[in-house]
Amino acid sequence: MSTITPIEPMVQAPDLGWVPSPQSLYRLSIEQYERMVASGVFTKRDRLHLINGFLVAKMTEDPLHSAVSEAIRLAIQPLLPVGWHVRPDKPLRIPNYASVPEPDLVIARGSCWDYQERHPEPANVALVVEVASSSLSEDRGMADIYGTGGVPVYWIVNLVDRQVEVHTDPGPGGYGTRQILKPGQEVSVVVDGVERGRIAVVDIMPRRP
To answer: Is the pTM of this model over 0.85?
Structure first.
């Protein structure tokens, strides 16, 4: 006589947010990512960038983020020496970390035409700036990638705490120094190891209502 095993009913709904463990996720090299971009796999609607070998969705900017980013660009631009320019929201290639982030601002050597066939790398860069509110945790996490990758200076313009977090002294373990600057203080703009001017922190913070 056969025995029929009863079917147990589901006691809870399936977890539709489940993702595979990190060990089972596939990581892209920069070369694979760049070939996919060149082939048209991604479009402007696909707001993605490559971080540590993984495709990561980019956050959409709100009006405040856009306004602060533009204020920083306008403050930095007049301080730059000849032979440097500002690149807003453009890719930065970090080969040793399989990353092609698109920071809010990059200060790059040369002119825009020097990068018509390649993206700049840390050796071509003086400063990376990220404006952070809801993305603060992610932008702080990027310090390890920028520091290990060799970006000389990294600013996080922290709108949550109304401060600028300046990371310097990059090395194999990330940045060796972090300085916190508040309204009433100034942040130094250093290009090629030389201070080119200072910007008042209050000038790149949101205006209070």
So the answer is: no
